[in-house]
Amino acid sequence: MNCTDLLSHLSDYFDEQLSPRLLDEIRTHTAGCQHCKVVLDTTHQTIEVYKGNEIYEVSDELRERLHTAIMSKCLAKK
Amino acid sequence: MPAIQSPATEEIHPDVALVERAKAGDTAAFEQLVRQYERQIFRVAQHITQNREDAEDITQDAFLKAYEKLDQFQGNSKFSTWLVRIAVNESLMRLRKRKTSKTVSMDQDVQTDEGSIPRDFAEWRPNPEQQYNQAELADILRKTIQGLPPGFRSVFTLRDVENLSTEETAEALGLSVPAVKSRLLRARLQLRERLSRYFRKKQEDQPA
User: Fold this and answer.
1) Which of A1, B7, B16, B189 pairs as cysteine with B115 (C-beta 3.0–4.6 A)?
2) What residues of A are in contact with residue B168 (Cβ under 8 Å)?
3) What is the CATH number of the domain that holds B139?
4) From CA A58, how far away is CA A1, in angstroms rounded?
5) Which residues of chain B fall short of a pLDDT of 50?
6) Taking the model in full, what pTM does it have?
7) Which domain holds residue B189?
8) Does ipTM exceed 0.85?
9) Closest-approach residue (CA) in chain A for B188
10) Distance (Å, rounded) from C-alpha B127 to C-alpha B202?
11) Vertex B36, ends B141 and B81: CA angle to 5°?
12) How many domains are there within chain B?
């Protein structure tokens, strides 16, 4: 496996959709290629940092306001 | 006493019963669906439009549309995926209205090669949560995702922020599974590249 091959398998790697053989090839490649190891690690961190931080907070006050507006619009259509 | 098991019974999503009741005119059942998904729909709309007021309007419009068209929901997909699809379409329409001179679609700007080839090979040490407080980090993440074209932003939001499966993301966005995979890879790489600028800069700023 070369660096381009690794890149083409990157999303399947994070989505855990790779065969054990390809996983092994990726592990072998990254053990000897610092650039690919960093790309793999920092892409993983990119996904995790977005998963772990709610960047658009929905406060209880906003949620209640939205909820009331939605239900009153729907009931008006009934 | 052992529980009676029926291994042949398929697990039915709890939304199915709520949708059936709502279709029959049970407003309380629809209200329960609203409670379950209003936060998610708001987040999706805000991610795509990058505008809080638009996201509020879209959330209301999406649920109203779902309520009006409930009879058309056949149950071939999850109710939540159907709802997200309505919200995505409403969001893209809103972007089109905002940029009257430009076409805004799932295909806008996705031809870019940016991020397809990694250029930044710096490690992120310490990790982002250790480098920045929560407010600073949220600000960086917002600014960074704002820079993605809508077609990439939508795929990344549904797949990696809202945790929809690849198939559900494809259905919600009206794209093929290969198109979702391709856009997701490029969205992830573009975000990585852009975030590296922030996270490596902080490292360089720190005294040796």
Assistant:
1) B189
2) none
3) 1.10.10.10
4) 45
5) 1-4, 101, 103, 208
6) 0.86
7) 128-205
8) yes
9) A43
10) 11
11) 75
12) 2
Q: Is A59 on the interface with B (CB under 8 A)?
A: no
Distance of CA B28 to the CA centre of its chain: 27
- The answer to whether A11 touches B185, Cβ cutoff 8 Å, is yes
Question: How do the domains of chain A map onto residue ranges?
Answer: 3-77
Q: Which of B98, B116, B151 is the last residue of a domain?
A: B98
Mind telling me how many Å the CA of B6 is from chain A's nearest CA? 31
Q: In this complex, do A53 and B122 lie within 8 Å of one another by their Cβ atoms? A: no
Q: Of B46, B76, B98, which residue sits at a domain end?
A: B98
The closest CB to that of B185, out of A10, A42, A53, belongs to A10
Whether residue B181 sits in one domain with residue B135: yes
Residue B109 placed within a domain: no
Search chain A and give the residue with CA nearest B166: A15
DSSP type of residue B69: T
B201 in the same domain as B134: yes
In a domain, B192, yes or no: yes
Q: Which residue of A has its CA nearest to B39?
A: A58
At B2 the pLDDT is: 46
